[in-house]
Amino acid sequence: MTFLAELERTAWTVEQRLGELLAAGETTPPGGAELGEAMRYAALGGGKRLRPFLLIQSARLFDVPEEQALDAACALECVHCYSLVHDDLPAMDDDAVRRGRPTLHVAFDEATAILAGDSLLTLAFEIISAPETREDPAIRADLLHLLAKASGWRGMALGQALDLSAERRPFSPEETAAMQALKTGALFRFACEAGAVLGRADQRGRDALKSYASAFGQAFQLADDLLDAQGDAEAMGKAAAKDADRGKATLVALLGIEGAKGKLAGLVTQAEDALKPFGGKAARLIEAARFVAERRA
User: Which of 27, 120, 182, 218 is a Cys-bridge partner for 82, taking CB atoms 3.0 to 4.6 Å apart?
Assistant: First the structure.
């Protein structure tokens, strides 16, 4: 199976499981159905499911079957979808289009979008703490701790706060990289380290995957910034050239197009080198790094 076929198959599997986890309950009180509908609008019907893919593939390095990593992957995707809902809000990035359709606060309303985002975030912890996710409570506790750190005030949320502050003052290349490592990189690091946790990997295995994830996250963000600067809005399914319009801190703005492309190539090499301890078992993760660097949407 080709890489793209495997990515699409995984996305479909994650979509089906998310649909089950977000199914409307019979006990939903009157008036509560709209919140569940908004959560499903945000979480279902699109996306490459790249973070779940990385988690599942990282776990596979340690012979963990996909079905035993799937719920942790879905919990991660719930956090990602929540972050998109909140990032799109008028007080944040103020986007009207996501994945080729109206953003949640446009399709519903701002209050519902906030509550749906909050609910997706808390659902993630409900899923990852459930015995069905992993029978061993020590593994669940490790996953919970890692996901909380990746999502919160010293992780992704802090990255978003720094991203907003960068609109008010110039950021250095070092500050920009640190901000992006939190806003974008934190969930990629969780994805890879969670796979190692599920597989009971030793410290050497965890460190190798964290190094891979760090380079991968930087490459993903740099490719995303290049797409924003050069890409086609219709192909991307969201507005293009918004970062420059709002004066956001990006490495593309600091390094220029050619400089950013050169750094991107170096990051892909770093990601590949980090996986050398795993040999041929890491082929899909290597392909994933190349995929994000070469993507056009």
Answer: 120
Q: What is the pLDDT of residues 182-212, one digit of tens each?
A: 999 999 999 999 999 999 999 999 999 999 9
Nearest to 81 by CA among 32, 14, 144: 14
If we measure between CA atoms, which residue out of 44, 56, 41 comes closest to residue 12?
Answer: 44
The CATH number given to whatever domain includes residue 285 is 1.10.600.10
pTM: 0.91
Position 243 scores a pLDDT of: 56
Domain that holds residue 280: 3-21+30-294
Provide mean pLDDT across the span 85-101.
Answer: 92
Query: Is 196 in contact with 206 (CB distance < 8 Å)?
Result: yes
Residues 150-154: contacts with CB under 8 Å, at least 24 apart: 150/79, 150/186, 150/187, 150/189, 150/190, 151/79, 151/121, 151/124, 151/186, 151/187, 154/182
Q: Considering only CA atoms, which of 54, 71, 213 is closest in space to residue 133?
A: 71
Q: Could you give the CA distance from residue 64 to residue 195 in angstroms, rounded to a whole number? A: 8
Least Cα distance to 289 among 178, 209, 235, 228 occurs for: 209
